[in-house]
Amino acid sequence: MSKVLISFIGTGPLVNKGAQGEEKSAREYRRASYHLGEENLGEYSFMAAALYETQNIDKVILIGTAHCMWEEVYRYFQEKNGGVIDEDVYCEIAEHCEAATSKSDLFIPHVKEIEAAIGKDAHLALIRYGVNEEEINENINIILQLNKLLSTGDELIVDVTHSFRSLPITIMNLLLYLKNVSSKNIKISHIYYSMIEMNKEYGYAPIVDLKKILKLNDWIVGAMAFKQYGNAYQIAGLLQQEDTDVTNRLKHFSDVMNLNHLYAISQETQSLRALMKKDFDSMLPEMIVKPVVKDFLNNFKGTEQNPALFQYQLAQWQFKHMNYAAALISLQESILSYACQTANHNPFDKDERQSIKDVICSDKEFIPFELRGVYFEITKNRNVVAHALESNFSSGKIIESLRTSLITAGKYIK
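RE: above sequence
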């Protein structure tokens, strides 16, 4: 596991040059004293240097356009690490980068020399300006390739101080993608931004840690998992320190949802209603937990005393969220519960449910003929799916049959 610094390189401040007062890059970084909290990291010419020297970095990945000040990166690290600056190399890099524009190829001379000057397994990633969709897509592909440079369990420290503001925004989202999707279990521990513009007022550049973005991203991922699958494990984990009771409720609810334990789901859904009255200490649970729970509970209004209707509504929710196997089970059981309720049998008693099932199979008039047909159709498709039976029905036909069955069953189960 390595601590990896991913930092953006800029072009330096603009100054007035020429008779027309045209603004151009001065090709030099403005030195600043960087402060991380109460700690003075020292004076550096760019943020990556400050983090490189103070954060025990194992690997460095620098990102920038061909116009960025790569010559200053070469100069700084060559001097810092006790190397001798090759003036020819420095000048060639400077001349090339100063002349580069948004139309230039993704190339700068002496990349290997710059990486060697930095050391620590350094890698330079050249990107486009991102002025149109084509360039944005190219940048996405370039950044996603950085995954190949990372190892399992790596910790990323991301610095978004320099470069065009649009590029860090784009690339931050890609890094979040890598964090959530990569099989390498990558951790982003810090997202640093140095407020260089505050140097005049404070006499130093305060470094702020935007890692709250990571927490917000975790909440968003958790909310989406709940909305799509009824899976509240991530939200429960995020609430662990704030409220263990809510955490346990959400975990248990997720367990029974994943088991499709219909009776337990009904009970746990009622338990979830208590969360709507809960006052959370922090804003994120208040803004995320309650809305997603409320959205889920809205599907089951008026079902508290009607097991058949609850199971039917659950089948509807499962179908909408493409959990078709669970929807087949829930719809089949909802019809059986409907028949139990119609015959004044206990829908939660195993023996009574079995006796009603036998009657449905033997008595064509026990429940509406159309609903009886839906029951047999659903049972057949459920058996095909659950028992890996050969069938002339494709998956698409089974799903379409389920859709039609839900519409038909809805005429009776109310």
